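Journal club prep — side note

Before the paper discussion, L.F. wants everyone to see what a predicted structure for a comparable chain looks like in token form. Sequence:
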Amino acid sequence: MAGSVLAGTTGVLVTGIVARTLGKAEAGAFFSATAAFVLAGGLAKLGTSTGLVYWPARLRATGRSHLLGPCLRIGLAPVVVFSLLLAVVMWAAAPAIARITAHDSPEMIAGHTAGLRVLAAFIPLQALTDVLLTVTRGYRSMRPTVLLDRVLRSSLQLLTVSLAGVSTLWAAASLPVFALAWAAPYLPVAVLAGYAARRVYLTGRPPGASSDRAERDRLRRDFWLFTGPRALAAVAQLALQRVDVLLVAALGGLGPAAVYAVAGRFVILIQFVNQGLSQSVQPRLAEALSTGDRDAANRLYQLATGWLVLITWPVNLLVILFAPYYLRFFGDDYTAGTPVVRVLAVAMLIATGCGMVDMVLAMAGRTSLNLGNVLVALAVTIGLDVLLIPRWGALGAAAGLAGAMVANNLLPLVQVFRSSRLHPFGPGTRAAALLSIGCFGLLPWAVTGLAGRGPAGLALAVAVAAPVFGGGAWLLRGRLELGAFTRRNHPKEAR
């Protein structure tokens, strides 16, 4: 969890450096380019971020550990080939992407094209890093993901982008230089991820393991039948998070795209926290569901959701309260995004209140339903974006993303309950929600009503709310099961 918070925080700092160093239009081009890069990398993984956790867990739980090696090869080889293909496609398509997203700033097209091509070269490294770290999580080892992705990559990105920012004291700011600085950390992290994946595989390999061709063929078929729908769902899920930046650039211009990307940066911070919790419980949830232990699965889901609400709802509520001041961190030009921040924060309250519901649905074997839900949500966001961005700019994109978030969480929430009788609203979730609303919603509203909504009044509100929240969490520690955060009291063992 600490690693996820660090990654999210460094992401905010990197965004701040880019926003303050580059002009508004050039910052919009940078955010559009990185959005295209993340989309391509997500497509290259072919949904294996779920398959390479689910299938190793299932093989171990069903006494077929001798198939772990073939399982990893089945998942890894197509990712390598497809990521190389996508890198070539993005390189070739870079001029067209630049012309579409920088139509209002023709002077940006050359630099935008160069930045896209720099990022294209790193697509295989990004995809391979994520998949290799997924392999380690499939062996129930979270440490490589935390140390290499959350800590090392994020810290190196902050360092390299900071150096790029410092270089502008002597030379003009350059989008390709910032793109290279942002992507370069994937190289050392990919090498270290490969070493970590090989080590956990060799440690967990049964002595004398072998398999026949019929077993491998059957596993390949079953692996991709499970993973195939998830591949489309994973791409659509990433599109939900990133395509809006590209649409704002294409329909509204690079300036509004920069405002929207900056305003929504806190959403990515919260998604990192959600991802960290999801990855922590994913292998155990997969084992519980693969063996039919619904009670254990429900407990894990509710426990993780309670923690997610406890951590993220205060952040969302504080962002609503401090929206103009939060945006000034990125520069005075970005304060127009205050309504965008507040719309997204309300949507994130709903999304995090449902927990990692899409992952639960996938682990329950309902990947086709998951795909349908994400496609519905993607249709909602694209439809609303096309309709609203020309009229409202960045706020229209925020409305589109908010509608998609609601659809993408409420649909699987109903499906998980109807099919598996799983839901996230345990006693810990309810306690965390009420505590957060009381301390960071109602209490600041009352304090600022008396002291005003200026900096002094807001600071006083937080000074009152924070200790009350901490005391409340301590008093409710049993209901919130905070002891399960410790190394000895693992979520699986908490009772």
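L.F.'s comment for the group: The CA atoms of residues 248 and 257 lie 5 Å apart. Keep this in mind when we get to the figures.
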